[in-house]
Amino acid sequence: KEEAQDYRYFPEPDIPPIRWTEKQISDLKELLPELPDKKVSKFENKYGLSYYDAEILTREKSTADYFEETISLCHPEHSEGSSIKTKDVANWIINKNIDIKKITPEALIGQIVSVKKTVQVDEGELSKIIKQVVLENSKAVEDYKKGKQTSIMFLLGQTMKKIGKKVDATMVKEKIEKELL
Q1: Per residue in 58-71, pLDDT tens?
Q2: Residue 176 reports pLDDT greater than 90
Q3: What number of other Cβ atoms are within 10 A of residue 180's Cβ?
Q4: How far apart are alpha carbons 54 and 39 in whole angstroms?
Q5: Mapped to the 3 state alphabet, what secondary structure does the chain carry?
Q6: What pLDDT is attached to residue 181?
Q7: Out of 71-75, 114-118, 161-165, 168-172, which region has the weakest mean confidence (pLDDT)?
Q8: How far apart, in whole angstroms, are the C-alpha atoms of residue 169 and residue 157?
């Protein structure tokens, strides 16, 4: 079967060939929605997401559109959502199984803001608490000084527990590291 005739591929004699102009082709391309692979690269480049997250978000067009609509509300001109990162929105949509039909993008931003809202703590009070935690947990301090990096997370946890409020953990961790040096 070396020839197309063996497979019975023949041109249809009753259908004339269709000639498309460049304008018609470009008009048709504009009607097409953004393809998933283009959306994946856009999510990676524009929003800084990993390929894995971008691929999950673009599996369904409705999810990708929901993500983009939510992100559009997170710009500085929207005061409530301005502190939210694109990664936070992606994580909530992917990991919390958000029902995009029931929760509006505005409501999602409100949920993320309420969970991520941190309280400012007085520097003096924070320093006292850190010193107290360091004194109470000398074993963890010794381990950290010997090079066991994970012990600082224990100290961070103890400090956060004593503070009793939701504060910025990275800032507290930096303060603990300074105290230990």
Answers
A1: 999 999 999 999 98
A2: no
A3: 15
A4: 8
A5: CCCHHHHCCCCCCCCCCCCCCHHHHHHHHHHCCCCHHHHHHHHHHHHCCCHHHHHHHCCCHHHHHHHHHHHHCCCCCCCCCCCCCHHHHHHHHHHCCCCCCCCCHHHHHHHHHHHHCCCCCCHHHHHHHHHHHHHHCHHHHHHHHCCCCCHHHHHHHHHHHHHCCCCCHHHHHHHHHHHHC
A6: 78
A7: 114-118
A8: 9
Residue 152 is predicted with a pLDDT of 85
Return the domain boundaries, the chain: 36-116, 123-180
CATH fold of 123-180 reads Arc Repressor Mutant, subunit A (1.10.10)
Cα 108 to Cα 76: distance, rounded to the nearest angstrom: 17
Mean pLDDT of 158-172: 80
